[in-house]
Amino acid sequence: MLSLEERISIASWKQSGKTYKKVCQLYQRKYGKQPPTRNNIRLLANKFRRTGRMADEKRPGQPSISDDTVKRLYQNCS
């Protein structure tokens, strides 16, 4: 999973017109690891263009239940 800083770097490189190959080179030089796939780079760039943000969006649906809540429920039922 990419950090927020890595996502921002990728989006800004693509926004400035860099090619996929150049983005990969810059990423490897800056972070010292294998760059994301071409598809993931495209998705990040599109997300930034569409939303203007790189942070993950809230997911719809019911929030998960914490372990403490589950323990309390089991204690109350027994």
Question: What would a concise description of this structure say?
Answer:
The protein is mainly alpha-helical. It has helices spanning 4-15, 20-31, 38-51, 67-77.
Structural description of this entry:
The chain starts with a helix and ends with a helix. The mean pLDDT is 89. The chain is mostly helical and 78 residues long. The chain is built from four helices and no strands. It is elongated, with a radius of gyration of 19 Å. Helix content is 63%, strand content 0%.
Mean pLDDT: 89
End-to-end distance: 41 Å
Helix content: 55-70%
Can you count the helices?
A: 4
Give the key terms.
DUF4817 domain-containing protein, DUF4817
Could you outline the blueprint of secondary structure elements for this entry?
Elements: H1 4-15, H2 20-31, H3 38-51, H4 67-77
